[in-house]
Write a structure and sequence with these properties.
The protein is of the alpha+beta class. It folds into two domains: 109 residues, 2-Layer Sandwich (Phosphorylase Kinase, domain 1), CATH 3.30.200.20; 163 residues, Transferase(Phosphotransferase) domain 1 (Transferase(Phosphotransferase), domain 1), CATH 1.10.510.10. It contains twelve helices and seven strands. Helix 6 runs antiparallel to helix 10. One of its GO terms (molecular function) is protein serine/threonine kinase activity.
């Protein structure tokens, strides 16, 4: 999905401390923690239209009684390549939630549910519940019931565009700071943020695709509009080439060693400083250039990105937001 939720700093959740040296092993193993005790159930129906009510159950494990829970769809808040996110209300508690509904392709393993069960961080929307739904065509959808955060990055961008203003630098930093074996799916990620190796059909890729996406989001926050607004997969590559220039044979091989078509018009890279306005801080342009590299192994790591000088202002304990509040203690 293109929408990215950001948890308000006024309501930070308490997060579990996990040492850095444990993270790679835990993420690679994709172990499901017992404290996320949610058993996915299957319900009939797949409607997301306003007023549609979805009834499912939670609990029923480790001696716990099963509990019926109902969600009433209110409105769609985002559409993506693989599904939809809609706002809903829990009828039992009155709580507003976001439900991300994604079609399950039986040919591939979907790790999204496992990943969401692992994550527990103030900058990541929390997973409350999950269930599967089916349609008359025997299609299976995964429904993730998530914490509802009304202010997405794109909504904030639209707000400042309507005012014909640039987003304050401190907000750009805050929002962008929070973005971050077997065959995989090459057709993944919303088009504007899709890494070039995916467009080249790579099925063996790394988390470098997320680094590319983060670079696209950062550039969009700085520009006020998408950097690579392609209308199709091919057009997306054209938009990338307009900025980065034609990839070399070596860069294409780094993206997908099995790609054999090298016939592209030779276009020179557009200087980064000409893409952004003259008053753009040079450290912002530098970070974008480090994130958006053709070769996945040349993109900076997530840790290197977070320690970049562009974010130094967020690490200053005296930094205040435009509304006078101090920046997030989670940083």
């Amino acid at each position: 999905m293109a929408s990215i939720g950001v948890v308000p700093t006024s309501g930070l959740r308490e997060s579990h401390t996990v040492s850095v040296d444990r993270l790679p092993e835990e993420m690679n193993d994709m172990k499901i923690r017992d404290d996320k005790d949610m058993e996915a159930t299957v319900v009939d129906g797949n409607g997301t239209e306003t007023g549609h009510i979805i009834v499912t159950t939670i609990g029923g494990r480790n001696g716990q009684p099963k509990q019926t829970i109902s969600y009433m769809a209110e409105r769609a808040v985002g559409h993506g390549s693989f599904g939809v996110v809609f706002q809903a209300k829990c009828l039992e508690t009155g709580e507003t939630v976001a439900i991300k509904k994604v079609l399950q392709d039986k040919r591939y393993k979907n790790r999204e549910l496992q990943t969401m069960r692992l994550l527990d961080h103030p900058n990541v929307v929390s997973l409350k519940h999950c269930f599967f739904s089916t349609t008359e065509k025997d299609e299976l959808y995964l429904n993730l019931v998530l914490e509802y955060v009304p202010e997405t990055v794109h909504r904030v961008i639209k707000h400042y565009n309507k005012l014909n203003q640039r987003m304050p630098s401190i907000y750009v930093k805050l929002y962008s700071y929070q973005v971050k074996g077997e065959p995989n799916i090459s057709y993944i990620c919303s088009r504007y943020y899709r890494a070039p190796e995916l467009i080249f059909g790579a099925t063996e890729y790394t988390t470098a695709i997320d680094i590319w996406s983060a670079g696209c989001v950062l550039a969009e926050l700085l520009l006020g509009h998408p950097l690579f607004p392609g209308e199709s997969g091919v057009d997306q590559l054209v938009e990338i080439i307009k900025v980065l220039g034609t990839p070399t044979r070596e860069e294409i091989k780094c993206m997908n060693p099995n790609y054999t078509e090298f016939k592209f018009p030779q276009i020179k890279a557009h200087p980064w400083h000409k893409i952004f306005h003259k008053r753009m801080p040079p450290e912002a342009v530098d970070l974008v250039s480090r994130l958006l590299q053709y070769s996945p192994n040349l993109r900076c790591s997530a840790l290197d990105a977070l320690t970049h000088t562009f974010f130094d202002e967020l690490r200053d304990p005296n930094t205040r937001l435009p509304n006078g509040r101090f920046s997030s203690p989670a940083i």
